[in-house]
Amino acid sequence: MRKYYVSAAVAAAALCAGALGVAAESVSNFDNEYALPTREWHFQGPFGTYDRAAAQRGYQVYAEVCSACHSMSLLYYRNLMELGLTENQVKDLIKDIQVPDLSDDGQPIDRPAKLSDHFKKPFPNALAAAAANNGKAPPDLSVIVKARAGGPNYIYGLLTGYVPYDELKPEQIKAFDVSKDDNFNKYFPGHKIGMAPPLSDDKVQYADGTKATLDQEAHDVTEFLAWASEPHMEDRKRTGIRVILFLLALAGMMYAVKRAVWSDKH
Amino acid sequence: MATSHGTPPVFNNKVIAWIDHRLPVFSYLEKEYHTFPTPRNFNYFWNFGAIATVMLVLMIATGVVLATNYQPNVLMAFDAVERIDRDVPQGWLIRDLHMNGASFFFIAVYIHIFRGLYYGSYKAPRELLWILGVVIFLLMMATAFMGYVLPWGQMSFWGATVITNLFSAIPVIGQSIVDWLWGGFSVDNATLNRFFAFHYLLPFVIVAVVALHVVALHIHGSNNPLGIDPKGPQDTVPFHPYYTMKDGFGVVVFLIIYAGFAFFAPDYMGHPDNYIPANPLVTPEHIVPEWYFLPFYAILRAVPDKLGGVIAMFGAIGVLFILPWLDTSRVRSATFRPIYKWFVLLLVVDVIVLGFCGAHPPEGFWVPLAQIGTIYYFFHFLILLPILGKIERPLPLPPSIADAVLKKAG
Asked: Does any CB of chain A come closer than 8 Å to the CB of residue B96?
């Protein structure tokens, strides 16, 4: 009997490993001579949580820089309270934002944003967004961290991975057909990216005194975007730990009962 | 012997006795799930039928809840799924369980199928039982494919486009079939709307075929790791409590692994591109289906001709329907088949290799590798199995299950 169990376990493990290996392969198969940076993220691991302070700073980077071109249409301003801000703090953050609406008599107006509003879009529609950006609309950032292979490391890498034209090697310029007007990014597939380097040292001024280096800004906005992609992540992990502890205890009990039931048959 | 279950049970509870006299559900449960004589020597591979059943129920339960919050409209579908994740109370949980549940349903069923292959569970008198199982597998594939379209991400859209376009390979009427499937001239709102309808319908068809699968199973009872028939009561145990407990334990262990993924790596088995809203004007760099389709996708692409590829892909499942007649060996369990034992394991390796081939763009060495894998797949079923049964010398079978079990226990 024991032999069967061992062979069963081995075969099942092989099947699962094979399946998972295939799944893993399928998301990581684009060639790139630059390996993505692997950073420590506060939210990684089974107990990881979002760094609220970093995410709040990240919202500031989004609001002051990214939001000029990128929408985050799935988020509401009220969601910002999940980052540890009070209702009044969020109201204060959005007090200058005007959103389009209709007046009572049906005329288009702009009115101050409310907590229940979606994040304001920078362009009225996709055509306008494309027209203002050399024909390609900037992607919505609501789920961007989940929508890119590499997740937060890719976003962080992209924001910090620009190489100025005169620092490129001649063979790179040739291989990727880069001109002086192109933006070369180490991690963007094909390397030529429409977006000019969006962040730089002191692009924003943090209220909490954190020094706004390029690295810090990229890190903070990635933390914010990771939260935006999956606001319920902490709830998911907490629930998961409870579920697995429960199932482990249940499995132990089941096994004991199973042994007892079978004891007269072995 | 499995068909004669002894005298009908007597129920002390008057309500139960009253109902049972008119509608014998309790007698049925008693007969089929309590006293049902089951071989005493199952290993843990025999858990996967129960596990697959649990996953099916879980998929239907979570799916019904998701459907109450979903919008099958190209303008709203992507946001509706995100809205379930973000704004529906516990919606993220239901969706995580559903999308990872699909993967784990397939894992359970693939192990279940492997069990059938290794222990010869498809052989007489269980041919129809096996064929019903293949029907369930096909229905699962159709259901999973349409379900993957519903979030209306890039892989949803392009996967649907690639797979429905396969039918255009059929001569003369192909394109008409594709237009008919689409309900238009491209994958669009009509396609999404009908896929939603069928994605909701097919699981209940699966339930019906599972019921037939179980009925067929209970005629001759389960196969077992020795592949020999029980010869009397000393070879069997009542299904309850022996296998209800063993299955229950196995189900919980499986659920732990499933929960590990659903709660700690919910997007691991998915593709990041499916978090990009569908865009008919932008084709993803590599269109890949969900992992559980990859071996078949590799077979599709291994054949240089489109129609040939489609025939090979459907043939890869079609060959399973005639497997009971391709395998000429009368010995069921691979334990007593010294040559087959290695080839069936090689088939598993082959399918996993095909899976990797399916995950990679068809270039470089992946192309010949997929072709070799495809040839071996069909070689195994169409050539090896018929010949092997004739030339292989099986090991001597034990006289009875009890004999083998008690000898091993010492």
From this structure: yes
pTM of structure: 0.92
Query: How many Å lie between the alpha carbon of B252 and the closest alpha carbon of chain A?
Result: 6
Q: Which residues of B touch A241 (CB under 8 A)?
A: 263
Number of helices (H), then strands (E), in chain A: 8, 5
A99 lies in some domain: no
What CATH topology corresponds to B40-289? Answer: Cytochrome Bc1 Complex; Chain C (1.20.810)
B51-107 pLDDT, tens digit each: 999 999 999 999 999 999 999 999 999 999 999 999 999 999 999 999 999 999 999
- What gap in Å lies between CA A225 and CA A219, rounded to an integer? 10
In a domain, A36, yes or no: no
Whether residue B5 is predicted with pLDDT greater than 70 in this model: the reply is: no
Q: Between the CA of residue B26 and those of B7, B53, B396, what are the distances in Å?
A: 14, 20, 42
Mean pLDDT of A101-113: 96
Active site residues of B: 218, 222, 246-247, 290
- Least CB–CB distance from B272: residue in A27, A231, A247: A27
Cβ-Cβ contacts under 8 Å, B40 against chain A:
265
Q: How many domains does chain A have?
A: 2
Mutate one of A2, A3, A27, A246 to test the B interface: name it (highest B CB count within 10 A): A27
Residues of chain B in contact with residue A20, where contact means CB-CB under 8 angstroms, are 268-269
Residues A261 and A163 in one domain: no
Same structural domain, A201 and A252: no
Question: What pLDDT is stored for residue B7 in this prediction?
Answer: 64
What are the domain boundaries of chain B?
A: 1-35, 40-289
A26–B294: do the CB atoms touch at under 8 Å?
yes
Nearest CB neighbour to B259, from listed A23, A243, A255: A243
What six digits make up the tokens of A99? Answer: 């959103």
The Cα B214–Cα B31 span in angstroms is 13
**Structural domain range at position A249:** 232-266
Q: Does an H or E element contain B241, and which?
A: none
> Does A22 sit within 8 Å of B355, measured CB to CB?
yes
Summarize pLDDT for B105-115 with one digit per residue, the tens. 999 999 999 99
Spatial CB neighbours of B91, under 8 Å, sequence gap ≥ 6? B69, B83, B84, B85
ipTM of the complex, rounded to two decimals: 0.93
Q: Does residue A18 lie within any of the structural domains?
A: no
Judge if A248 and A147 occupy the same domain: no
